[in-house]
Amino acid sequence: MSSSDNPLEYHDRWALFGSLPLFIGSEADRRIYYNRAGRIRLPVRLVTYIFCSLPTLALFACVFLALETDFELATRTHCGVQNLLPSVSVAVGDFHWGNLLWKSAIFTHLPPRICVAFVYAQLFRVPFERCGQQTLRYATCVTNLIELFSLGLLSAVTSEHNHPLHVFAFTTFQISAIVHMMLHTWMYDICRLNTASKICRQSYRYKRRFLRFSFFLLIACSFIYYWHNARCEPYVYSLFALCEYLLVVMNILFHGTVMYDFDRCYVYIF
């Protein structure tokens, strides 16, 4: 094994969660902090696949259910032009079974993602941390938590039940998600994790790629939505919906890079 593939020297790739019987780290770290084996031991990569699959599969299942349940209602717009796809809000909120499926997937995967937010706050900590870097590290964690809170809020409150609150939650989610991705990638660079190992370099490349795609898709969504309201042409709203789907997928893929950052680590439940 080359030196570039050795575990990270100055970053803690383990995390304790107070009184919770939960530990994330390598087998060697587990032996240091716990004198017993966990009742459950799952690779971080497997856990990442599971919890990234939940919202992804739920989203496309909701789109399918919306189109199958009532195509006209799912694709209807304020000006009545033809469309093929429902928006994310309509797909996950306006149909009973789709809404139930979406809420189940989101609220199942939120607790692990909250844990990951604090795990990264520890990973980005370095010896002799300066005040500015500490503030940036906290901001990265806070924006992640805001993103997750707003995701839960927009899932719990549908557009049909409380449109202003849903729009606020959705807007907050999109802004905090992009800001968090920017701060996260910046912290990765500042802490020199992007050069710490081969797998970390790969993770950094993926993060930057997903961030760029997210920027492009967010701008595209804004432009297409304006175009739809200004011109109200057929199928334009479907293009907006497609960009929405891809934006959600980019967000999931970005957060899925945790499996590279904690390669050869495990989730232990005691």
From TrEMBL:
Native organism taxonomy: Eukaryota, Metazoa, Ecdysozoa, Nematoda, Chromadorea
Membrane topology: Multi-pass membrane protein
UniProt entry tagged with the keyword Transmembrane: yes
Organism, as annotated: Toxocara canis (Canine roundworm)
Protein name: Post-GPI attachment to proteins factor 2
A GO BP entry: GPI anchor biosynthetic process
GO cellular component, one term: endoplasmic reticulum membrane
The UniProt record lists the keyword Transmembrane helix: yes
Keyword field: Golgi apparatus, GPI-anchor biosynthesis, Membrane, Transmembrane, Transmembrane helix
Record's subcellular location: Golgi apparatus membrane
Chain ranges passing through the membrane: 46-67, 106-124, 136-159, 165-188, 209-228, 234-254
CWH43-like N-terminal domain mapped to chain residues: 45-263
Family: Belongs to the PGAP2 family.
